[in-house]
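YM 10:42: Membrane peptidoglycan carboxypeptidase sequence, as discussed on the call
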Amino acid sequence: MAAPRSPLSRLFTVLLAGLLAGLALAVAALPGNLLLGFTARSALASYASLPASLRTPATPQRSYLYANDGKTLITTFYDVNRTDVALADIAPVMRQAIVAAEDRRFYDHGGADLRGLARALVANVKGGGTEQGGSTLTMQYVRNVLKTDPTRTAEERAAATDPTVGRKIQEIRYASALDKSLGKDEILDRYLNIAYFGSGAYGIAAASQRYFGKPPAQLTLAESALLAGLVQSPDAYSPISGDKDEALTRRSYVLDSMVATGAITAAQAAQAKAEPLTLHPTAQPNGCTAVSQGHDDWGYFCDYLRRWWVTQPAFGATVAEREQALRSGGYTVVTSLDPKVQATAQQQATKVYSYDNKRALPIAAVQPGTGQVLAMAVNRHYSLDGNPAGQANYPNTVNPLISGGTSVDGYQAGSTFKLFTMLAALEAGRTLSTGFDAPAKLPTRYAAEGPGSCDGHWCPANANPDWMDGYRMMWDGFGRSVNTYFVWLAEQVGQDKVVEMAQRLGITFRADSDAAFAKDNAANWGSFTLGVAATTPLDLANAYATVAAEGTYCTPVPVVSVTDANGEKVPVGQPSCKRVLDADVARAATDAARCPVGQQSAFGQCNGGTATGVNDILDGRPVAGKTGSSEQNSTETFVGFTPQVAVAGIAANPDDPADEVGSAVQTKVIDAVARVIATAVKGQPEKAFAAPSHELAGDPHRPVDRPAVPDRRQQPTDDNPGDFLQRWLNNRRG
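YM 10:58: structure's back
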């Protein structure tokens, strides 16, 4: 039953009836088009004078995010659940049903059916229980566009449904102008794409999915009649959230109307009426916390994409405009997420630590040469659900544990930072055969107190003296992860050069203490080569991907392509790459990075590694990488790469840096990262690393001077403020 009409609505009805009723009675026998010309010729609007939204609809549409196969749906974003479809992609019975339900004379009138409008108004003035409508499909379309037009103010949108004579006459004028300029099929298509069908579904594509879980091209007669019947009162008749009996009653009404229009036979109508109401409700995901069921791990990648999106000027001048574009622009986004790589990364992360473990293993995978992010996994649910008392980030969190940002500075990555020292040394003209007698402990010029000091100076030590001490070159110094060799090498090159190298390869200092040290005193950051600065798996993977790409740095990017609602490609997401290293320098560093993973350098100088099991997991496929352990094994890290992929994983406690994960987990982290690499390269042709030049390799067989360990016990000078290091160390402990 229709709701009682308000006094204002009745007044509007009486006024408009007085304007048209007499006219309708006088000329009821006239043809519709002649009637329109007789009554409204002087009032017609031209098509050019119509609001832009009526000429080129700007209806909000849902944006879709797919994996890199273009088929696997990650999630959607929307304010309004709508997706436009072509009329050819809507079942013919659906088109016939909506015309029969809402405007039987649609193909006969000129946009505004004054005869039907006047008849409805006269009936409404006389009363009788059920209020009749007189709006054509075209008039309804005008009203729907104007009340949802995102380019109009809230007041203007509200005015589109005002119960006034002026508004109704304007609606008639606009509808008539549209009918003169657009074909009936175009108007019908636009109407079906904007009409509200209840339960949050705008447009026939969303409605078909919402109620029946299918595209509109597959709608049956009974399903079409049901949907067409909802338009009159979408919320009341919705069989999901409203009255199912009313929905079936309306379905019968529509089927009878289709018989009256000749669209179907009485027998077909009877058969459709006899069909039981069979729904397959499908709730469309909205946002990163509503990713596909069973894949809440995709939420971290989705969130990274959203944060990338709001930095792109192509989607608006401000962050707010870009956010709105994602929710209403109808974009199709093919992301760089590889479902297979992501699945392996998630499986491996949760194999090392369960979802409810306070420790975490965030993993990131990046494609060298493009910067495309292939996977972002961690043993957490991307969810706003609550956690047990006292637990901030597990098992549920939406914090960017893998990429960093907001409250996440990152984690110490230990000796993986030795790569930046090696690159800086190679760039400065040192060769891979640069030798040094690495002692068990190396006194430095930096003032320090506590267990790690020697006579008041920082004194780094080797973790395994029996295996690490002695004459080392870059190959075995890197392979065996010899601390004293790389601290010495960093001093020869200049600590500031090492810090700059890391930044050049994309390492971002998110922690205030790190950023301050890098800016104000990088030359005295002696411990930097040991990976004391906080970083993230994504930054680390991309830095190593730069070396894998022979010195070409690519900004990390989460998309392959973005297409707007009109099918046009948006010029965003293309690889943004630049050369930051000489190719030979990158090749030399890669040659040394073969040593840690159990492979051999091009010059046969690998003689031990900290992650030799990687070679077996990759079946001898060319691979390189580096392990990293922070002080007291607070974190354990491994980064591995081939020419096709770079993967990094860091075991840490995101909520408590003082919680030591322990050395025992290192082999698990290595295994996890290696298996992600194996999945990423499966089916791809094996690609070898290019060997570096003999100039950068040097001659490891030629006798060289072996510098003595310098005496670092002198007090720091003014240009060497050793207390700055102590202050930084104290900040890190805090």
